[in-house]
Amino acid sequence: RTAVLVAVDDELCGLIAIADTVKPEAELAVHILKSMGLEVVLMTGDNSKTARSIASQVGITKVFAEVLPSHKVAKVKQLQEEGKRVAMVGDGINDSPALAMANVGIAIGTGTDVAIEAADVVLIRNDLLDVVASIDLSRKTVKRIRINFVFALIYNLVGIPIAAGVFMPIGLVLQPWMGSAAMAASSVSVVLSSLFLKLYRKPTYENYELPARSQIGQKSPSEISVHVGIDDTSRNSPKLGLLDRIVNYSRASINSLLSDKRSLNSVVTSEPDKHSLLVGDFREDDDTAL
User: Fold this and answer.
1) Helices marked H in the chain
2) What is the pLDDT of residues 101-116, one digit of tens each?
3) Domain 23-128+215-228: CATH superfamily, name plus number
């Protein structure tokens, strides 16, 4: 939590603890994404303790805390250089550069206009389960495209040899009306196959929850790997002395500033106008939790 001290007439009289609440469907969404074979990583500008607490509640084991917007871009780029396809989910201004850099940027519809503009997919509702539904729908769409390709290919594989006269010795000849019928049948079969997507129904919360209810469980702090900035050095032990904390935070601050400059200079985009708007002036607006 973030502590806010309250003073009246220069005398401390109270303390208010402020914290973001975890979306009720977040734990289920993370579990389903993992069951789909995806690796889920949390990147946040909050401090490591807050990030560890949130990760333990939703079941995420790898966390990057105290990251700047440019750090998120650098991490996405690093994962892409490792050969991974990255989907970034975010709704804030700080997420916009990473949304633009990711292979697929997914923005929550209730987020900022900059994030929505930078993303490839915009979810209308403020529901993380729609992330799961969008991936599920995209997979079914790609599967249908492959089926349509097979339908179109079959007519050509059968019709072209006949039209070339390969089977003429046995009396099999392709008449012009047969070729026209085959072309029409090919188009009709592809269209009808595509129309099957109209039968798709997004699974409800109950559909997701019932199979996963027995498998969902919060992670213990020892199972969570927390990294400060984009450094892959794990901070597994939160019990540090005051001097160690000062040294670590100072080191993280220096690394953050250096990494911020490097990542801003290394971003390569195919749409300079959009990305320059998102990345160019962030050094003035960055807010860090260090």
Assistant:
1) 26-35, 48-58, 69-81, 96-101, 113-118, 129-163, 176-195, 205-212, 242-266, 272-279, 282-285
2) 999 999 988 878 888 8
3) HAD superfamily/HAD-like (3.40.50.1000)
